[in-house]
Amino acid sequence: MRTLIRSAAALAAAGLALTPTAAAAAPTPSPGAATVTKAGTSFLTATTITPGQPVRVGASTGDHLYWSFRAEAGDVHEVSATVSFGGRARTGPSTWTVDVFDGLRRRQACTAGAQTPTVAATATSLTLGCTLRRVRPWAEPWSGDPLPGTYYLRLSVTDLPEPDLGLPVEVDLLVGAATGGGTSGDDGELAAPLVANTRAGTVLTADPAPEPVAEEDAGLTGWLPEAGSRWVWTSAGGVLAAVAGVVGFALTRRPRRP
Question: CA-CA distance, 66 to 100, in Å (whole number)?
């Protein structure tokens, strides 16, 4: 019984570990694209690349590597990066991250991919990924929606043992772009109601009969306002104010001398 439980747990763990890798489809480089062999160290010195252009650069652990690429409306960009450690011994696990910023230096959220994975000290490589939201042709000024323009990509390590700083690594990076026809996924027609109708009406087989209209009372009291209306309360308030004014004057006036 214990053997079956351990086997089931091992299969479940293996399935959980393989599911993200199998579900993520890595972008492919464009045919004939030249490989970029350098990276910038800040937003101002970011190396310009194009979607589908492979990148291979050597760096040191702890460096901040920057690239920039152009995004058009309707594109969905997918970033795939692999950090190779070259089999060099490391003292502990490390956490890496890939961040994407728009032209206003606003960090864009990832909808899929291992954006901030942690690798063990014995691993020889690490794979990162980030799928961005579809670029919109327009957005409100206060929103953080992605708009067409230049985007910046940063690859860095966020947590590692201090003795591992400066160890050489090799980075392979690729940005893929899927064009969606120049429109945003938020723009379009609603195919189905957002909330289903839970109170269905009856099917009418004939035109409904009009409801009878009550005749207006043309008697002597027809012109009087209804009880409880604002005209009644206003009139009563005016009468009470007049009475209060007369009583107050009678109480406060001085008696005349003979």
Answer: 10
pLDDT digits (tens, 9 = 90+) for 38-50: 999 999 999 999 9
CA distance 184 to 135: 7
Rg for the chain (alpha carbons), in Å?
37
From CA 82, how far away is CA 196, in angstroms rounded? 46
Strand partners, 179: 75
Task: Please choose, from the candidates 122, 36, 56, 118, the residue with its C-alpha nearest in 3D space to the C-alpha of residue 85.
Answer: 122
The model scores a pTM over 0.70:
no
| Integer Cα distance of 177 and 165 in angstroms | 33
3-state secondary structure of 227: coil
Q: Tell me whether strands 94-101 and 125-132 are parallel, antiparallel or unpaired.
A: unpaired
Asked whether 36 and 55 are in contact (CB, 8 A), the reply is yes
